[in-house]
Structure formats: C-alpha cells, structure tokens
Amino acid sequence: MYGKSATRAVLLLLGIQLTALWPIAAVEIYTSRVLEAVNGTDARLKCTFSSFAPVGDALTVTWNFRPLDGGPEQFVFYYHIDPFQPMSGRFKDRVSWDGNPERYDASIFLWKLQFDDNGTYTCQVKNPPDVDGVIGEIRLSVVHTVRFSEIHFLALAIGSACALMIIIVIVVVLFQHYRKKRWAERAHKVVEIKSKEEERLNQEKKVSVYLEDTD
Question: Where is the Ig-like domain (predicted)?
C-alpha cells in the first residue's frame, strides 16, 4: 500500500516538474490586416498561426466581428475539433470553415458580402499550453468595385514591360530578316551583272577573232 502511494507521489511530482519545465509561449497570429471585396461576392478571411506546442484536440479558434459603426462585438465562428457555425444573427448560413489546423491555418469563408459587413474581424487561436498572444485582426471593406492596389499597378507594369520586350524582339527579328533579304537581293544582282559582263566580253572576243580571221 505504501509502495503504491509512494509511486503516485513520485509521478505527481514528476508531472508538476514537467509542467513547470514546459516552455509556455504565445501563439503568433498572421492575417492580411486589410481586405477589400466587392458587394455580393465571397471572401476568404485568412488567418494563420504558429505555436510552440504541437497542434492537438485542445486547439480552439474563435472569430468575432466589430461593426464599423460601433456596437457590441458579434460572434462569427468557432472551431474545436469540429466547426460550429452561428445559429442566428447576420452570419447565419453565411460563414464556413476553410482552415486546416495541421497546416496552422484557421481561415474562414464569408459568403454573399453586404455593405453592413464592413468592420473588423478578429481571429483568436488557443493551443494549450499556448493560450496567450495577440489576437489577429482583418479590417474588411465592402465596396462597389475593387480599386487598383499597388499589387495591381505592379502587375500592370510588369505586363506592360513584358509586352514591350516582346514587341522589341519581334521588331529586331523582322529587321534582321529584312536586312538578310536585302543582302540576298543585292548579291543576286551582282551575280547577274557579272554574268552579263562576262557574256558581253565573250561576245567582243568572238567579234574580234572573226575580224582578225577576215583580214
């Protein structure tokens, strides 16, 4: 009896020491911070994270919403082993899970965007013993049409530069082809002139020989 009690005490003490030695770190959250989407379309609210502890069944993900015009925070989505969608409110039947905890992804999809969806969406991930950390935020702006961003301008500039390079290459190839054609035509004319000149000289020689024989 005393042996079992001593064993339990040692295991309990060992567990307490292991818990104390386990480094508790904050969960790091990564989001796009700002997102712009067109009214009536769908949007993926991307949220990824990093954690010192391995991902397990204790992982929880909570999404909330703060309206742009103020007011209380609203529940959007919850994940713990399985996804839990809201049963009522503005996000009922309009949000779905699009994450993968094994890949440290806690993203969701928001369907049929409306103008009153403008506001800040928060993504909180807890992966015990890592439960602390800054909550990720995405400021969503629902607009009539998407404005050109720096990425769009960069893509346009790269596309224009590529098109210009293709045009330059085509012009150079055509110019070289034209030069080769002109050189070939000139060479052909030179050959024709030489042939005619040789033929004329041969005719003069024949006439000269004929005149000499006649004399």
Answer: 23-141
Structural domain that includes position 108: 21-144
The identity of residue 61, as a single letter, is: V
Contact 96, 79 (CB under 8 A): no
For residue 34, give the amino acid letter: V
Strand segments (E) across 127-212: 136-143
* pLDDT tens readout for residues 16-56: 343 444 455 689 999 999 999 999 999 999 999 999 999 99
Tokens 């909180």 sit on residue: 124
Phi, psi of 97 (to 5 degrees): -75, 130
Q: What is the pTM of this model?
A: 0.59
Measure the CA angle with vertex 23, ends 64 and 104; round to 5°: 40
Q: Are 51 and 130 in contact (CB under 8 A)?
A: yes
Query: Are 52 and 136 part of one and the same domain?
Result: yes
Side chain identity at residue 156, one-letter code? L
